[in-house]
């Protein structure tokens, strides 16, 4: 019960519920004011205007939010006018439907915010069928009042923003810490859980993409905030939490362990890994608790559990050495030590977040030059050439726009020919659930149908109990707020609440509520079926055929990241910023690849060509970026020796192999440079350096010098890490080259 109350509290204090309240205020206030002033006939148009322009009100840059809502207002007004003027003329109306659907849906090529503006435009087109205005004067009044409603909602959004200026960012930070906490606990299970390892690795792909999306939105919101007047103290705190969360995520990514090596080294001695596993779980759960406290504003939990777990992890290294004995224990001890160092760094970042949340006065201050911070923002290109570049059947968004347009026109004609009551509900279902990928459309269709049935069942039970209009009005209003609050978190429940709201609104107008419920369910099912069938048959966009460009970008960013890490090795201070930017770009690239793979898993089995090969490519790329991050993290946090000739040679070899894979996949002419004949020798020499240091250490132990100084320890760690990780990267790059070549032959050349 206590847990359920906590979840309820978190929901009621969330920015998602806050946006539901905004919409409620945006609808209720103008309706109430116009009712009391005696102009209630104008209220529906104002309410529709507010409702249509709410989708663009999402977290991020406040300036971009305003621009999006203003653009949405203009677009919804123009579209409504076109549809209302075209309704008396069927051929003209069909042409208008086709043109508006295609052009407006294609706006989505400009990114997520643009896709919400696009959705508002499509929603306005559908809502126009529910509006009955005959004369030009009536149409212009309707459109004008809708514009007033849109501007009113913008005012409401502005007021809410001023009353709670940090709520959206706090929610984003909370969601981010929650996801990272879940990610850390999942990675802990990978350490010893061999049986479900592949399944859990696939789960990490989805989490990585979600975390990167949150970080991108937070970068936009916080790095662009108040550029002219400077950041407030609270914004400074939020930025500190963001930076620490990015560091934690990158540290987790950097420790993509060679699980086969761990299984081999520890064998039946997995008990020595349990302390490290427990530490990761405790830190993950602590991050989840901190995520809740960003919303709840409760007392920060004691850190003693964290410190005890860290101490136990450190003690397990000594225990392992004492049990296995040196020199046999050296490799396992170094693995445990490297793991401990990375976990200690994560704990430092968690402590930093705790200090910021506890308002500690001496918490760090962020100092980012504007030109430096701009490099960490992924800017959306809004030029017309973006639209023209996507004006081809090769573009996923072009095919989606064409598919959606044809589905809408066919649905309208079905409704017209069979004289279906409120047939625009079919159109509404299509625009709400239809997505570029078949898998997501199918999933949303299922959720929509189940949600509609749940909502209809609830509505029937209420109708059987009472026919009170006041009850209907209250339920319609409350369910609409809750539906808008849940639309991103749980689409099934949101669909149920939307159904309840619509049914009771129509029940107020039409006394026969059961007829309203019946048509609502029927129209939803028809719309869902049309959406799924259209996605499957009309210019289908199977993910296996869309992977090429995502793979090319990942290969390019991995190579750039590798070379930036090499530069970092030469001079940490000089090349740290360039390294950070390359790391961010590589993480985004792998995130997009992971998201593409997730979409592939949702496609029909018959369309998942070469699934295992693609999974292998995704996994190798993920492992490569983690191995590079591990090297970079060690360089940043330790004083390293000068890069050797052998190290330079191996990095050049790996880079060339990645370039070969890129050129092979891109069908560009492959330049055959001189083969690095000495790469095998370089590998052996790097390993030899580690063995020399190990032998020196063994000799010291034999002579009674058992104390291990920091310099020798770091030297051993560096030699072991560089030798193993570069050899690992070389092997991975060669495996990736072979897998990419097989992908090109099996998929690209067969198109």
Automatic annotation (TrEMBL):
<keyword id="KW-0813">Transport</keyword>
<keyword id="KW-0812">Transmembrane</keyword>
<feature type="transmembrane region" description="Helical">
    <location>
        <begin position="139"/>
        <end position="160"/>
    </location>
</feature>
<feature type="transmembrane region" description="Helical">
    <location>
        <begin position="453"/>
        <end position="485"/>
    </location>
</feature>
<dbReference type="Pfam" id="PF04632">
    <property type="entry name" value="FUSC"/>
</dbReference>
<protein>
    <submittedName>
        <fullName>Putative membrane protein YccC</fullName>
    </submittedName>
</protein>
<feature type="transmembrane region" description="Helical">
    <location>
        <begin position="521"/>
        <end position="539"/>
    </location>
</feature>
<dbReference type="GO" id="GO:0022857">
    <property type="term" value="F:transmembrane transporter activity"/>
</dbReference>
<dbReference type="Pfam" id="PF12805">
    <property type="entry name" value="FUSC-like"/>
</dbReference>
<feature type="transmembrane region" description="Helical">
    <location>
        <begin position="66"/>
        <end position="85"/>
    </location>
</feature>
<feature type="transmembrane region" description="Helical">
    <location>
        <begin position="21"/>
        <end position="40"/>
    </location>
</feature>
<keyword id="KW-0472">Membrane</keyword>
<feature type="transmembrane region" description="Helical">
    <location>
        <begin position="116"/>
        <end position="132"/>
    </location>
</feature>
<dbReference type="InterPro" id="IPR006726">
    <property type="entry name" value="PHBA_efflux_AaeB/fusaric-R"/>
</dbReference>
<feature type="transmembrane region" description="Helical">
    <location>
        <begin position="491"/>
        <end position="509"/>
    </location>
</feature>
<feature type="transmembrane region" description="Helical">
    <location>
        <begin position="92"/>
        <end position="110"/>
    </location>
</feature>
<keyword id="KW-1133">Transmembrane helix</keyword>
<keyword id="KW-1003">Cell membrane</keyword>
<dbReference type="GO" id="GO:0005886">
    <property type="term" value="C:plasma membrane"/>
</dbReference>
<feature type="domain" description="Integral membrane protein YccS N-terminal">
    <location>
        <begin position="75"/>
        <end position="328"/>
    </location>
</feature>
<dbReference type="InterPro" id="IPR032692">
    <property type="entry name" value="YccS_N"/>
</dbReference>
<feature type="transmembrane region" description="Helical">
    <location>
        <begin position="401"/>
        <end position="418"/>
    </location>
</feature>
């Amino acid at each position: 019960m206590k847990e359920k109350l906590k979840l309820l509290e978190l929901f009621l204090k969330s920015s998602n519920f806050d946006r539901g309240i905004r919409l409620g205020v945006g609808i209720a206030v103008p309706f109430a004011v116009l009712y009391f002033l005696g102009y209630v006939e104008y209220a529906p148009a104002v309410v529709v205007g507010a409702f249509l322009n709410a989708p663009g009100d999402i977290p991020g840059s406040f300036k971009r939010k305003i621009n999006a809502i203003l653009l949405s207002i203009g677009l919804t007004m123009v579209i409504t006018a076109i549809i209302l003027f075209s309704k008396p003329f069927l051929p003209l109306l069909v042409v208008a439907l086709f043109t508006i659907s295609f052009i407006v849906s294609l706006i989505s090529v400009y990114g997520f915010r643009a896709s919400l503006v696009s959705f508002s435009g499509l929603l306005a087109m559908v809502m126009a069928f529910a509006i009955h205005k005959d004369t030009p004067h009536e149409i212009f009044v309707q459109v004008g009042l809708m514009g007033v409603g849109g501007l009113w909602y913008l005012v409401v959004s502005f007021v809410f923003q001023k009353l709670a200026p940090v709520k959206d960012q706090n929610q984003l930070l909370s969601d981010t810490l929650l996801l990272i906490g879940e990610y850390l606990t999942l990675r802990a299970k990978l350490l010893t859980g061999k049986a479900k390892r592949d399944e859990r690795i696939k789960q990490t792909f989805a989490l990585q993409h979600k975390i990167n999306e949150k970080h991108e939105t937070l970068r936009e919101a916080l790095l662009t905030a108040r550029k002219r007047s400077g950041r407030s103290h609270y914004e400074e705190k939020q930025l500190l939490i963001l930076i620490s969360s990015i560091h934690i995520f990158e540290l987790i990514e950097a420790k993509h362990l060679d699980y086969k090596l761990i299984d081999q080294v520890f064998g039946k001695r997995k008990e020595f890994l349990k302390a490290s596993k427990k530490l990761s779980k405790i830190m993950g759960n602590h991050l989840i608790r901190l995520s809740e406290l960003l919303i709840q504003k409760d007392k920060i939990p004691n850190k003693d559990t964290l410190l005890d777990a860290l101490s136990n992890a450190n003690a397990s290294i000594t225990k392992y050495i004492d049990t296995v004995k040196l020199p046999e224990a050296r490799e396992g001890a170094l693995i445990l030590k490297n793991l401990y160092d990375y976990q200690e760094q994560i704990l430092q970042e968690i402590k930093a977040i705790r200090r910021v949340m506890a308002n500690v006065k001496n918490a760090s201050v962020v100092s980012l030059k504007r030109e430096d911070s701009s490099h960490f923002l992924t800017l959306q290109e809004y030029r017309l050439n973006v639209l023209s570049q996507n004006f081809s059947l090769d573009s996923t968004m072009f095919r989606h726009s064409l598919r959606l347009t044809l589905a809408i026109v066919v649905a309208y004609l079905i409704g017209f020919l069979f004289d279906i009551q409120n047939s625009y509900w079919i159109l509404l279902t299509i625009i709400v659930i239809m997505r570029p990928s078949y898998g997501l459309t199918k999933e949303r269709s299922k959720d929509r149908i189940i949600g509609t049935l749940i909502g209809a069942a609830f509505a029937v039970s209420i109708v059987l109990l009472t026919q009170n209009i006041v009850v209907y009005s209250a339920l319609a209003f409350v369910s609409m707020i809750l539906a808008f609050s849940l639309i991103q978190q749980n689409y099934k429940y949101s669909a149920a609440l939307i159904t309840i709201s619509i049914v009771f609104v129509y029940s107020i107008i039409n006394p026969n509520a059961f007829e309203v419920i019946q048509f609502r369910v029927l129209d939803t099912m028809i719309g869902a079926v049309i959406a799924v069938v259209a996605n499957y048959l009309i210019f289908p966009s199977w993910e296996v055929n869309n992977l090429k460009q995502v793979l090319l970008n990942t290969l390019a960013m991995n190579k750039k990241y590798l070379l930036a890490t090499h530069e970092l090795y030469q001079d940490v201070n000089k090349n740290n910023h360039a390294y950070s930017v390359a790391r961010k770009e590589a993480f985004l690239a792998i995130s997009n690849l992971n998201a593409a793979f997730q979409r592939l898993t949702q496609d029909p089995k018959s369309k998942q060509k070469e699934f295992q090969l693609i999974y292998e490519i995704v996994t190798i790329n993920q492992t490569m970026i983690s191995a590079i991050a591990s090297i970079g993290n060690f360089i940043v946090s330790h004083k390293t020796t000068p890069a050797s000739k052998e190290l330079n040679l191996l990095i050049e070899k790996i880079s060339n192999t990645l370039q070969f894979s890129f050129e092979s996949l891109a069908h560009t002419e492959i330049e055959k440079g001189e083969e690095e004949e000495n790469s095998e020798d370089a590998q052996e020499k790097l390993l030899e350096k580690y063995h020399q240091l190990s032998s020196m250490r063994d000799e010291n132990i034999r002579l009674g010098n058992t104390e291990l100084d920091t310099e020798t320890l770091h030297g051993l760690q560096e030699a072991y890490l560089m030798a193993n990780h570069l050899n690992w990267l070389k092997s991975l790059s060669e495996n990736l080259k072979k897998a990419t070549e097989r992908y090109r032959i099996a998929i690209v050349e067969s198109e």
